[in-house]
């Protein structure tokens, strides 16, 4: 079957490569991927697949049933782009660009679908295959996504968490997704994060004529960021803590004391416990700075992404599949390495065995203005062959290997409801200082 699928991918080479270029040229950020999703939906339906659409957000899935009992394996592709206005290929109006390679993932997902649509493709497999195009992996535009939350459209910033909440992953037993990168590789996992929106609140006044009548929110914010930076040496190296803020609103006019400054930030870490402890320190620093200036600060903490821990057996599966179909490519295997970026694949790893390997074919700085696909053959064609080999290894021989992986897996959570209860506890919001005359009460 592995040779069968390799030939099938070659048959649909033009479809895959055209999709990669089309999606590259039409970037859309998270929960805005309407055109990208519609393009893929049309392609999937032209191959004969029936789709389940997400509804009022982009994304869809299709289930392929072999007709023989066995687990359900999900293969994912992400729809969204980044914002990088300086990139030469960025949309001139929006600054959107696929500077993380999700265009590769979704084109490859289409190629996998095309190969699986070939006559005889399911003959040696058991169980079900779910192919899913999911939105909003990049944790950006927090203000926009917060508005979607208030409107009741979404509850979670990340597309996989939102799909999980909506029941769009119900019935899935295991999952994998291959991300574009510079090498074929897999590592043990990556950090999770809390997403923060911070509003420093002061009092406006004439900046030249009567600054003593104002309370400068920008000074409070810069003091808060300085205080947070002073926390960095208290973070243990093993916890892989990262705090990185941006100011999205810094005042209204030069001649007016800024009364509102808004910051977006993440607190990342290796474990839930490490993230929570570091976030408490950051909030203390941010709040203390506001108190020192006589300002207030509203901090909105929301669950970002959970730490990703790839299943060891699924990691080995990826390595074996690569060795079978692309033996000419080096495959780097890092059993203990934890990356310090975050992905919402972490939303799934506590419930089912998952793996998130990488394929070669891109160059430049990830999320940077020089990121690009330099070898679509390696990024898409070889990746599709590797992923189909993974499916074959899992589901051949009565899905023996998939069943064994599931038997060995020990979930961190008993159900998605238990998982959501855990991450929902990270949510908090409100002003952190209550002024009462000469006294103040602080809530961290």
Features:
Aminopeptidase; 36% helix; alpha/beta; elongated; single chain; four-stranded antiparallel sheet; 444 residues; 21 strands
Topology:
Layout: H1 2-11, H2 13-25, H3 34-46, E1 52-53, E2 60-65, E3 72-78, E4 82-83, E5 96-97, H4 102-116, E6 128-134, H5 142-150, H6 159-165, E7 174-176, E8 179-180, E9 184-190, E10 192-201, H7 217-229, E11 242-249, E12 260-269, H8 272-293, E13 296-305, E14 308-309, H9 312-325, E15 331-339, H10 346-349, E16 354-355, E17 358-359, E18 362-363, E19 372-373, H11 376-408, H12 416-424, E20 433-436, E21 439-442
Parallel strand pairs: 3-6, 3-7, 7-16, 8-17, 9-15
Antiparallel strand pairs: 1-2, 2-6, 4-5, 9-14, 10-12, 10-13, 11-12, 18-19, 20-21
Structure at a glance:
With about 450 residues, the chain is an alpha/beta fold.
Tell me what you see in this structure.
By secondary structure, this protein is an alpha/beta fold. It folds into two domains: 2-189 and 307-412, Zn peptidases (Aminopeptidase, 3-Layer(aba) Sandwich); 193-305 and 423-442, Alpha-Beta Plaits. It has helices spanning 2-11, 13-25, 34-46, 102-116, 142-150, 159-165, 217-229, 272-293, 312-325, 346-349, 376-408, 416-424, and strands at 52-53, 60-65, 72-78, 82-83, 96-97, 128-134, 174-176, 179-180, 184-190, 192-201, 242-249, 260-269, 296-305, 308-309, 331-339, 354-355, 358-359, 362-363, 372-373, 433-436, 439-442. The strands form seven sheets. Strands 1-2-6-3-7-16 form a six-stranded mixed sheet, sandwiched between helices. Strands 11-12-10-13 form a four-stranded antiparallel sheet. β1 and β2 form a beta hairpin. The longest helix is centred in the C-terminal third of the chain and has 33 residues, at 376-408. The chain is elongated, with a radius of gyration of 24 Å. The mean pLDDT is 97.
């Amino acid at each position: 079957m592995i040779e069968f699928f390799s030939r099938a991918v070659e048959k649909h080479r033009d479809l895959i490569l055209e999709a990669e270029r089309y999606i590259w040229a039409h970037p859309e950020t998270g929960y805005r991927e309407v055109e990208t999703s519609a393009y893929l939906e049309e392609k999937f339906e032209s191959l004969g697949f029936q789709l389940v659409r997400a509804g009022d957000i982009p994304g869809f899935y299709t289930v392929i049933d072999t007709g023989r009992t066995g687990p359900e394996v999900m293969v994912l592709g992400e729809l969204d782009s980044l914002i990088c206005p300086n990139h030469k290929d960025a949309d001139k109006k929006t600054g959107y660009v696929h500077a993380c390679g999700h265009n590769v993932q979704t084109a490859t997902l289409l190629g996998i679908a095309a190969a699986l649509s070939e006559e005889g493709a399911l003959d040696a497999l058991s169980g079900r295959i779910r192919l899913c195009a999911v939105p909003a992996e990049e944790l950006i535009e927090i203000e926009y996504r917060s508005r979607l939350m208030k409107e009741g459209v979404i509850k979670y910033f990340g597309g996989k968490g939102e799909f999980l909440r909506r029941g769009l992953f119900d019935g899935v037993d295991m999952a994998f997704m291959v991300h574009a990168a510079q090498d074929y590789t897999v590592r043990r996992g990556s950090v999770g994060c809390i997403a923060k929106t911070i509003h420093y609140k002061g009092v406006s006044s004439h900046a030249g004529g009567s600054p003593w009548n104002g309370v400068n929110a920008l000074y409070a914010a810069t003091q808060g960021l300085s205080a947070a930076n002073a926390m960095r040496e208290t973070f243990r190296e093993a916890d892989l803590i990262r705090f990185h803020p941006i100011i999205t609103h810094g005042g209204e006019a030069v001649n007016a004391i800024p009364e509102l400054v808004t910051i977006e930030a993440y607190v990342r870490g290796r474990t839930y416990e490490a993230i929570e402890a570091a976030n408490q320190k950051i909030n203390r620093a941010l709040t203390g700075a506001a108190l020192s200036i006589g300002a207030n600060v509203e901090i909105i903490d929301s669950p970002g992404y959970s730490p990703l821990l790839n299943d060891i057996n699924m990691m080995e599966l990826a390595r074996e599949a690569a060795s079978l179909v692309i033996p000419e490519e080096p495959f780097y295997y890092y059993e203990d390495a934890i990356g310090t970026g975050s992905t919402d694949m972490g939303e799934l790893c506590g419930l089912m065995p998952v793996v998130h390997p990488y394929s070669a074919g891109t160059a430049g700085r990830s999320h940077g203005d020089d990121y690009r696909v330099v070898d679509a053959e390696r990024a898409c064609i070889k990746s599709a062959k590797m992923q189909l080999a993974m499916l074959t290894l899992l589901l051949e021989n009565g899905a023996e290997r998939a069943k064994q992986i599931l038997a060995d897996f020990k979930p961190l959570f008993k159900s998605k409801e238990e998982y959501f209860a855990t991450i929902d506890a990270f949510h908090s919001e409100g002003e952190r200082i209550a002024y009462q005359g000469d006294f103040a009460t602080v809530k961290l």
